[in-house]
Amino acid sequence: MSSSSFIVVFLFIDIVTSFTQSVGVKGVLTCGNSPLPDIEISLWENYLPDGGLATTKSDGSGRFSLSASLDSPSFLISPLLRIFPHCNSDQTMLRLNELCQREATYQIPSSFVNIGSMVFEWYDMGRMNMEVRQVNERAECSPSPFQGSETSEREGRVLAQSIPGK
C-alpha cells in the first residue's frame, strides 16, 4: 500500500467515525387556552448515558426554542424532547401539582437532524395543550403530607394507600 493510499484511508476513517450533528426544536405550550410560561424543556440524545444536550424554559407566551450540536461517533443522533409541565385542572384543584412532576417525551424525527453545527431545518412542534395527558407521559409523585401515596409511572397518577386504623 502506498503512502498516499494510507493517508486517504486514514482521512476516510476519521471522517466516518466522528462528525458534528445538530438539531433544533421550537413550539408553543398552553394550558387549555392560556399560555404556559416558565416550563422546563430539555433536549436529549437517546443513546448516551448522560444524554442531556440543552435546557430552556418557555417564555411568558409559552414559546420555546432550543438547539444543540453534538460530535457523534459514527451514528446518527436520536434526539428526544422532554417537557415538564405543571398543567392539569385535577391536580390544581386537589393541590397535587406541587406533589407530582409530569414528564412528556417526544422523539424528534431523524429528518430534522442537521449535519454540521448550524441548525438549518428546525422541528416545529406547533401549539401543544399540556392540559391533556400526552401519549408518552409519565408522572412521579412525592408522598402527600396528609396520607401515604405511591407512584404509578404507567398511569401517571397518585394512588392513595389506605390509612392505618380506618
Task: Describe what you observe in this structure.
This protein is mostly beta strands and 166 residues long. The protein has one domain (3-137): Sandwich (Immunoglobulin-like), CATH 2.60.40.3330. The protein has helices spanning 3-17, 89-93, and strands spanning 19-31, 34-35, 40-45, 52-57, 63-72, 79-84, 100-107, 114-115, 123-129, 137-141, 149-152, 157-160. Strands 1, 2, 5, 8 and 9 form a 5-stranded mixed β-sheet that branches. The protein has a 5-stranded antiparallel β-sheet with strand order 4-3-6-7-10, with no helix packed on it. Mean pLDDT is 75; it is low at 5-16 and 148-166. Residues 139-166 are annotated as: Disordered. Keywords: Secreted, Signal. One of its GO terms (cellular component) is extracellular region.
Strand residue percentage: 35-45%
From the 3D coordinates, which CATH architecture would you assign? Sandwich
Low-confidence stretches: 5-16, 148-166
The tally of structural domains comes to 1
Largest sheet composition: 5 strands, mixed
CATH topology: Immunoglobulin-like
- How far apart, in Å, are the first and last alpha carbons? 84 Å
Region (Disordered): 139-166
Protein name: Transthyretin-like family protein
Pfam families: TTR-52
Signal peptide: 1-18
Keywords:
166 residues; mainly beta; Immunoglobulin-like; 5-stranded mixed beta sheet; 5-stranded antiparallel beta sheet; 2 helices; 12 strands; 12% helix; globular; disordered C terminus
Concise overview:
Residues 139-166 are annotated as: Disordered. This protein has helices at 3-17, 89-93; strands spanning 19-31, 34-35, 40-45, 52-57, 63-72, 79-84, 100-107, 114-115, 123-129, 137-141, 149-152, 157-160. By secondary structure, it is mainly beta.
